[in-house]
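Q: Please design a sequence for this.
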């Protein structure tokens, strides 16, 4: 069974084209072409390197279909394919649902009826109910089949081929607007955190009243324009992943508000369409508001950067926090450390670890970056290995 994939955004337009073809089929006295939907699915469209990890940024939604049509038969013959013979070789136009013998891929433009070799012309490959296959040029079809309505046989094959061609138009995503895309929450929220850090938070409703661009739309634009703009820092990525991890637990409560219910759908799905950009971007300020609501003010331990960027060394570190984030490419464990002087460090691990909270370890690692998170300096480590406890 041959199937075709069509952009979901183009599907309604495709059905209108099929309806137009079916009007022609009706005039020919042929059965209509039908479309059978097999499934809906998403495929990655664009990726980005965020914090050293390759993350899918946007997805395209597709519908997988099969085309069904009952070709008319004359004297037991039906069309399998139309071959266009060119100087560079044959172009095969196989009728949907039919199988063309492989030998016809290289067949010359020979007519089995008049036994003449033609040049630069199309030939029809016909199959009889008894299994016999012949190749006939268009001018000989009527004589070969002996019917005055032979036109319906050929034209219906053309209609099926046209339906197949329309199913493959503009389905590579090159002409899709951002409103027809879905996006990865794990890729989008770091850009939201970046915009909040640099420009502050502005909801879509307030932005509309002020006639300016909202945080959500700035972040979405930055995400789609990866080659020209600023990329999120490790701190931005961590802030966004922390908000997702928190929300997954917080939104398990009963009696969710309408806003919280919508937010839960977004967090649970992780792949969200453009209409949800505003809701999705509000997760970070909502997380900050809820977590800080009843948190008493504390004197923060002063943290300083340590180590030389790019140098591999051994450090004595206490694990103060660790949590897992499930992403497109698997599980990432984020480790938070503190040394004896209170200096903070963070390590993103794709392989996890068996380290325990509040335990102190000797860690061999490379200084990847000196960064800040929520105003606190932290050292970003990579390629870490516990060598002693």
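A: Design:
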């Amino acid at each position: 069974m041959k199937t075709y994939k069509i952009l979901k955004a183009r599907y309604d337009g495709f059905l209108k084209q099929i309806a137009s073809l079916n009007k022609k089929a009706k005039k020919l006295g042929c059965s209509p072409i039908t479309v059978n939907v097999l499934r809906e699915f998403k495929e990655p469209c664009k990726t980005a390197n965020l914090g050293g990890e390759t993350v899918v940024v946007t997805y395209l939604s597709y519908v997988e279909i099969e085309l069904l049509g009952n070709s008319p038969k004359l004297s037991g013959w039906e069309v399998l394919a139309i071959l266009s013979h060119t100087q560079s070789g044959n172009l095969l136009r196989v009728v949907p649902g039919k199988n063309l013998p492989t030998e016809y891929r290289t067949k010359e433009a020979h007519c089995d009826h008049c036994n003449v070799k033609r040049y630069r012309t199309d030939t029809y490959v016909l199959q009889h109910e008894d299994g016999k296959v012949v190749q006939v040029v268009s001018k000989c079809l009527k004589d070969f089949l002996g019917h005055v309505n032979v036109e319906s046989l050929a034209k219906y094959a053309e209609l099926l081929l046209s339906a197949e061609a329309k199913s493959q138009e503009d389905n590579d995503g090159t002409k899709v607007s951002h409103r027809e895309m879905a996006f990865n929450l794990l890729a989008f929220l770091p850009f939201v955190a970046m915009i909040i850090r640099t420009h502050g938070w502005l909801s879509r409703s307030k932005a509309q009243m002020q006639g300016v661009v909202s945080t959500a739309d700035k972040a979405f634009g930055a995400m789609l324009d990866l080659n020209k703009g600023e990329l999120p820092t490790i701190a931005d990525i961590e802030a966004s992943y922390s908000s997702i991890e928190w929300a997954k637990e917080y939104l398990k409560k009963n009696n969710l508000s309408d806003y919280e219910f919508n937010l839960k759908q977004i967090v649970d799905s992780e792949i969200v369409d453009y209409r949800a950009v505003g809701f999705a971007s509000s997760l970070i300020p909502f997380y900050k508001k809820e977590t800080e609501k009843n948190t008493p003010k504390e004197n923060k331990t002063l943290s300083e950067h340590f180590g030389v960027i790019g140098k591999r060394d051994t450090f004595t570190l206490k694990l103060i926090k660790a949590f897992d984030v499930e992403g497109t490419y698997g599980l990432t464990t984020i480790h938070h450390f503190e040394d004896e002087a209170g200096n903070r460090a963070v390590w993103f691990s794709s392989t996890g670890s068996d380290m325990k909270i509040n335990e102190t370890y000797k860690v061999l690692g490379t200084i990847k970056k000196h960064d800040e998170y929520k105003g606190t300096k932290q050292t970003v480590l990579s390629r870490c290995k516990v060598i002693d406890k």
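Q: Thanks. Anything notable?
A: The chain has a mean pLDDT of 85. Residues 4-66 form one domain.
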